[in-house]
Amino acid sequence: MIISSPSQPANLSGTGTTSSTSPLSEESVESDCNCAGAATAAGVGAGTGTTALMMGRAARQMQTPAMEAATSTTSSTTATTPTTTAAAAAAITTTITSRASLTRPASESELLVGTGTSGTSSSGGGRPGHRKSSLALALTPEDEPMDVYTRNLMDLKYPTVLPPNPQLKALLVFHKSDSICEVVTLACQRHQLDVTLVKSKEEALDTLQKSYATAQCYHLIIIDARSTKGLDAEHIARTIRHTHGHHLTTIIAVCKKSFFEKDDALIALLDAGVNRCIAETTNLAMCSVELKQILHSIIRPHNVMSTQQALYTALHRLKEVVLITDDLLRIQYANRATERLLNMRLDEIISKPLADIFVSDLSTISEQGKSIKEFDGILTVRRKNQEGIPMHVRVVPVACIGSAPTHLIFNFDIPGGGMDFIATLPQPKEAPRGSLHSVRRCSFDVRSIASDGLRRTSLAKLTSLPLEAPITKIINLLSQVQENCSADEARLIDKVLEFLKREGLYSPQMKEIRTDDPIATDLIGALLTGPSVYSSRRSSNDSIIRTGNSTRTAIVPAKMKANPIVMELLEESLSWDFDIFKLEEITDYHPLLYLGMEMFRRFDVFATLNIDENVCKAWLAVIEAHYHKSNTYHNSTHAADVMQATGAFITQLTNREMVMDRMDEATALIAAAAHDVDHPGRSSAFLSNSNNPLAILYNDLTVLENHHAAITFKLTLGDDKINIFKNLDKETYKSARSTIIDMILATEMTRHFEHLAKFVSVFGSEVEPRELVQSEEETSILMRRMLIKVADVSNPARPMQYCIEWARRIAEEYFMQTDEEKQRHLPIVMPMFDRATCSIPKSQIGFIEYIIQDMMHAWDSFIDMPQLITCMQINYSQWKKYDEQGVNTLADIMAKQPPVGNKPSNSK
Ligand SMILES: Nc1ncnc2c1ncn2[C@@H]1O[C@@H]2COP(=O)(O)O[C@H]2[C@H]1O
């Protein structure tokens, strides 16, 4: 493994050089301070470039008590730096150096980081104390004396991953260039710091931002804190400290001497993120010494720490299992391989007593009262599921603070080697789960499907496009939550993620059909699934269905309003127990025309569309004429029934002050009137199975509903005399058309649960609907879809007598389809709907239980029409009774009914 910084090749023995000599000065302080650490100081820089390697999760977990041991001088105050531990550094150093190093005695594991004095106090040949003179003279690598190389052997052993000669950069934030500022600048220059001077907070942040963009980091920031008039040093320090990439930047505050008499101002600065406060001085020597101490005691350790993030990352990604405990054998660090081995997430591992993850007795490693020993042998590890795995474990005690071992490094592999074994164990999924990347990987590998170079390139470009969908964002957010939650919660979120990654988020997973009743299964299956399941067998016979091409002649009764019986009946046209069958009868099978005109009049549709009543009358007549009288269910009486329910719902919405605007009312009524126009009396599945031209035209997708919507507009726009939209302006027409199409398409049953789920999720939530959807228009669309859906299948919630008649009609239509399928040797879409054997009560019980019940409850909670629920429950009980009594066939049931057209008994 080689680690290098972007600007420097991997070169741990690095040849030191000073690229420039000090421009200073007669006031040299070289002799005053112990400059043995000069090379060290020169070699400290760093690191942000190197730390471009991401700090891993494990590394973040390592941030325990701060290790900073910087010395403070009499005139300075130093803040503790909240960074990584010496223990971690030692562990990392030890691990990365080599496996062999695990056998080294603990005393050797001392880290070559820390105080300036550690460098300065060294003496003797080959140690840092010899750097001073050599570095002062060295101009090029070749000029460097050999002792530099000797010293760097220590770096080889305990590398700090620092480039050898980084140019240290200082940012000076001084309101004005006075004598203090000048001295600070000179002192910086004396120590070869590259100085940038800025005069305001904004300029400072801007400079840092630019430096960040160009990977040119500032190692030192010195802020003028002498007065709050020019600059608010505390605020600047806090802002910088909280800016990404500056947690290890050294920040110094230059304060008035008087500040040092009381501690409050200085402590406020230190708490804001300043590392050290120094007293203002016009004495360059004093300032230079101060700066030198800062270089040794703060900047160097900071740089060491920042570059060690590369080591954390290396350790984190290691295939070998490494974990570190403290002296009480509590786990302090675990790498990713440990997570895999234990099948636990890091947050479950950290702080655990070591004994919890071993089945074996650990007394060989640590006996009460005795010192921690090295260990090399077999121990059995306990995984989360209690499974035990024997592992070869090596344990090395390390002294991080003082000379007694404080930490233990554990290194595992399976007996006989083969670390890939861990990869074969069942794993917790790794973060970032659900990232765009992982979602893509789940569905298909873009690269594997791109066979030629050209496609590969363009697909690669595609993956970099900003194509993140909202669902991906949701998945990513949940994945983030998952990283910090309990195992149980994580499992639940996993389940949620699994669903979210599926297509057709709102498509129903067909509810498990609890009933053992094959009739209900047949019916629900046929309604909720698309036609493709029936497409295997095809008949070569022509369909008997002729659709859509001939315009039927509409006969508009000349004096429709003159019929007093019709007029009287229509007075009740908004009540839930309106007798649609009587209307059918007394209008000679023109219920849509009469009911339609009544609705248009009541809801002011003529005015809304700015159209003559006669155009509307003609339109209704043509639409009605295109309903097939031969259909027992899908005829114009059903259309009139749906229109009547729509009128009743609009009225109730208005009563509840959930007002639809006039155009919304008009379009809802038009959609209801036309929603099944030219229905062939056979299902979409039948059309697909029989190669009907409509199924071919619409590719087996939403065949009937597409046809109803299309033919509505074809008929309407095809004849000026019936074009009810002709006076609308372009925009209004466009919007009306879109609403009508959307409502008609919403009656398709394969998307029943999708619409219901969306409606419930928006209107059933505590949250204001507007906050859950993107716009008011979207809320309105969901409401209109549900309105027409409920109206379309409201027959089981109508007064019982009507409910039974509708059940008879739909059953008869299903039977006719089955008859035809049999006759033409087509696949039988609902085999149980055979007139000889079918139980009507059972089919109705299934229909109510699986399709109607939830939807009616949702709609009733929204619109407040309890009679829907009352009727539905009475009807349900009646079907149950019939079922128990064995009243099954249409004939049985009809024998029990009073003739339709009489007022039902269970209405309000
Ligand atoms: N009472 C009922 N019993 C069984 N199926 C029904 C009943 N009412 C409506 N349906 C079905 O529900 C479907 C709703 O959409 P369609 O009008 O296209 O066709 C309808 C019928 O297939």
Automatic annotation (TrEMBL):
Named cofactor requirement(s): a divalent metal cation
Keyword DNA-binding attributed: no
Pathway per the UniProt entry: Purine metabolism; 3',5'-cyclic AMP degradation; AMP from 3',5'-cyclic AMP: step 1/1
Molecular function as annotated in GO: 3',5'-cyclic-AMP phosphodiesterase activity; metal ion binding
Binding site for Zn(2+) 2: 676
Listed Polar residues bias regions: 1-11
EC annotation from Swiss-Prot or TrEMBL: 3.1.4.53
Top enzyme category: hydrolase
SUPFAM superfamilies: HD-domain/PDEase-like, PYP-like sensor domain (PAS domain)
Biological process annotations from GO: cAMP catabolic process; signal transduction
PDEase domain boundaries: 552-886
Protein name per Swiss-Prot or TrEMBL: 3',5'-cyclic-AMP phosphodiesterase
Primary gene name: LOC117567317
